[in-house]
């Protein structure tokens, strides 16, 4: 068996070393330094070059290096290739803490006070009274965030692709359900998987359906947001504020208008960073399952793209 690591935009030395220690009898190589592409059974991928996939005729399985698989063009993979993802429960806890923190930060006007501090301005105000959070996407991360918010006194609604049973969370689904939820939320948190259907979903049309005092918090993917539409809503006072952890281009360009907008809080894609040891264990386990002909863990539904 041969494993190929095809992860762009980062130094993979530590990852490969730890994975090789976990699987001492498995050949692990990094693209493009691959001796024999025909021997590759398993690929660990994140933003792998599209030109690589046709060179792997015997590929059996692909694992995303993250919770989502949007960095992999599934149309380039044979239908027989199984695609799996990383599921890290600590990541869900971290995401829930991040979302709660930034909902509270927006509620308590912390960004406003930070700006006033730089101006040496003393002007206290009451915290915003709004406490209704709407979550786009109700998978494992969405459920963890909802529970954390509920535990801290917030009302939570969620929009999903299909109806789901949930305690203490009102579930909306379909276009009609989405419109109903949007009109009544104070904070909109995006946790959707990135698919063709959800790309650009936070656009002028969606933002116009939110109350003017609403805040958008995006911790999913940058491509969910139409940047100019978000900036226009903020600049026209039809949206109160935004917290953004993900962006179309990362790192964010130095001349990007997000940097200087006082209504935007930026963080560097840090809401939930997977523990490397946990990731390696999951990847190694799936490699061993593939080698033994067993069912792989955490497969995606390729028809849905997540």
Tags for this model:
five-stranded parallel β-sheet, 306 residues, single chain, alpha/beta, 29% helix, seven-stranded parallel β-sheet, 8 helices
Number of helices: 8
SS class: alpha/beta
Please give the largest β-sheet.
7 strands, parallel
Helix coverage percent: 25-40%
State mean pLDDT (0 to 100 scale).
Answer: 95
Please state the overall shape, judged from the principal axes of the Cα atoms. elongated
Contiguous low-pLDDT stretches (5 residues minimum) are: none
Tell me the total number of β-strands. Answer: 12
Distance between the termini: 26 Å
Which range does the strand content fall in? 15-25%
Radius of gyration: 21 Å
Question: What strand line-up does the widest sheet have?
Answer: 8-7-6-9-10-11-12
Tell me about this structure:
By secondary structure, the chain is of the alpha/beta class. Helix content is 29%, strand content 18%. It contains 8 helices and 12 strands. A 7-stranded parallel sheet has the order 8-7-6-9-10-11-12. Strand 1, helix 1 and strand 2 form a beta-alpha-beta unit. Helix 1 packs across helix 8 and helix 2 packs across helix 4. The radius of gyration is 21 Å and the shape is elongated. The two termini are 26 Å apart. The mean pLDDT is 95.
């Amino acid at each position: 068996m041969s494993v190929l690591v095809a992860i762009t935009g980062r130094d993979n030395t530590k990852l490969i070393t730890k994975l090789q220690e976990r699987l001492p009898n498995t050949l692990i190589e990094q693209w493009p330094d691959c001796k024999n592409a025909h021997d590759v059974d398993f690929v660990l991928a994140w933003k792998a070059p599209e030109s690589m996939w046709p060179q792997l005729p015997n590929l059996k399985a692909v694992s995303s290096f993250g919770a989502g698989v949007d960095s992999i063009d599934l149309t380039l993979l044979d239908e027989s290739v199984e695609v799996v993802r990383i599921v890290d429960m600590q990541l869900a806890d971290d995401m829930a803490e991040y979302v709660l923190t930034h909902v509270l930060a927006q509620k308590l006007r912390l960004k406003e006070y930070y700006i006033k501090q730089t101006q040496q301005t003393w002007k206290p105000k009451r915290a915003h009274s709004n406490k209704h959070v709407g979550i786009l996407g109700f998978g494992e991360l969405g459920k963890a965030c909802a529970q954390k918010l509920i535990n801290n006194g917030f009302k939570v609604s969620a929009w999903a692709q299909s109806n789901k049973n949930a305690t203490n969370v009102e579930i909306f689904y379909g276009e009609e359900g989405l419109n109903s939820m949007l009109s009544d939320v104070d904070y909109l948190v995006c946790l959707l998987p990135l698919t063709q259907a959800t790309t650009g979903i936070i656009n002028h049309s969606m933002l116009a359906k939110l109350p003017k005092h609403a805040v958008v918090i995006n911790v999913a993917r940058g491509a969910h947001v139409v940047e100019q539409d978000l900036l226009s809503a903020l600049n026209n006072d039809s949206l109160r504020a935004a917290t953004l952890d993900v962006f179309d281009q990362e790192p964010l360009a130095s001349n990007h208008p997000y940097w200087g907008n006082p209504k935007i809080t930026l963080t560097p894609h840090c809401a939930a960073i997977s523990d490397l040891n946990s990731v390696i264990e999951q990847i190694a386990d799936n490699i061993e399952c593939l080698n033994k002909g067993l069912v792989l863990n955490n497969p995606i539904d390729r028809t849905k793209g997540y």
